[in-house]
Automatic annotation (TrEMBL):
<dbReference type="InterPro" id="IPR050627">
    <property type="entry name" value="Nitroreductase/BluB"/>
</dbReference>
<dbReference type="InterPro" id="IPR029479">
    <property type="entry name" value="Nitroreductase"/>
</dbReference>
<dbReference type="Pfam" id="PF00881">
    <property type="entry name" value="Nitroreductase"/>
</dbReference>
<feature type="domain" description="Nitroreductase">
    <location>
        <begin position="37"/>
        <end position="205"/>
    </location>
</feature>
<keyword id="KW-0436">Ligase</keyword>
<dbReference type="GO" id="GO:0016491">
    <property type="term" value="F:oxidoreductase activity"/>
</dbReference>
<protein>
    <submittedName>
        <fullName>F420-0--gamma-glutamyl ligase</fullName>
    </submittedName>
</protein>
<dbReference type="InterPro" id="IPR000415">
    <property type="entry name" value="Nitroreductase-like"/>
</dbReference>
<keyword id="KW-0285">Flavoprotein</keyword>
<keyword id="KW-0560">Oxidoreductase</keyword>
<dbReference type="GO" id="GO:0016874">
    <property type="term" value="F:ligase activity"/>
</dbReference>
<keyword id="KW-0288">FMN</keyword>
Length: 230
């Protein structure tokens, strides 16, 4: 990224640019929408494997996301080992039991009813891969001096969006899982205290009999999510 003695502005010519016509831009935007609207959160996974190379390329894409001061405050841990996945499931389900036993509150549990979720999380073992996303709250220069990262939640959130889009583009299905607390993941994967695990992404191929909640197909229309001031 940068070192302590090289923190200065050095402009270069724009290396990459897609100079579409207005018609091409609209065509590309519509094509991307058509592809992305087919993305679904999936809880039923097949045993079909996913290569490490595919996961690496999708995470490489996530790493191109914009970030505060270009500090790129993220780290991804990709897990396919059954022993680790089992430990993550056990820890997550313990937390989920407390959540569904009343910790969430009646309003939140009522909101989740149409989704059909509960404290059983088999996908955390059945998915070919789990990707744990860590947000880096601070970093260190090569000499060990600590520096602050900026807009960490926003930056890692954008990177997660890139990751989900890349995985979908690769023909895979995903589920985002956010148990809390997740500090056990730092110890499990020897990550520093500067990093906070914020999300587990289950990744794989959908089972042939996979189901999704009907409510998941209901999206707000454009006029409810957009205001135009032109």
């Amino acid at each position: 990224m940068f070192s302590r003695d090289k923190v200065k502005y050095e402009p270069i010519d724009l290396p990459d640019h897609l100079d579409y016509s207005a018609a091409q831009s609209l065509e590309e935007a519509r094509a991307f929408y058509e592809r992305m609207k087919r993305r679904h959160t999936v809880r039923d996974y097949s045993s079909k494997p996913v290569s490490r190379e595919v996961i690496e390329e999708c995470i490489r894409t996530a790493g191109t996301a914009p970030s505060g001061a270009n500090h790129q405050p993220w780290h991804f841990v990709a897990i396919s080992a059954p022993t680790f996945k089992k430990k993550i499931r056990e820890a997550a389900e313990e937390e989920e039991r407390q959540f569904y036993d009343g910790g969430a509150g009646d309003e939140w549990l009522k909101a989740l009813e149409p989704i059909g979720t509960n404290d059983n999380k088999p996908h955390l073992e059945e998915a070919a891969w789990l990707i744990v996303v860590f947000a880096q709250r601070w970093g260190h220069f090569e000499d060990g001096t600590r520096f602050k990262n900026y807009y960490v939640p926003e930056s890692t959130g954008i990177a997660c969006g890139f990751l989900l889009a890349a995985l979908h583009h690769a023909g895979l299905v995903t589920l985002t899982h956010t148990p809390n607390p997740m500090k056990f993941l730092n110890k499990m994967f020897d990550r520093p205290d500067s990093e906070k695990p914020i999300m587990i992404v289950a990744v794989g191929h959908a089972a042939k009999d996979a189901k999704v909640p009907a409510v998941a197909k209901i999206k707000k229309p454009l006029d409810e999510i957009l205001t135009v001031a032109d």
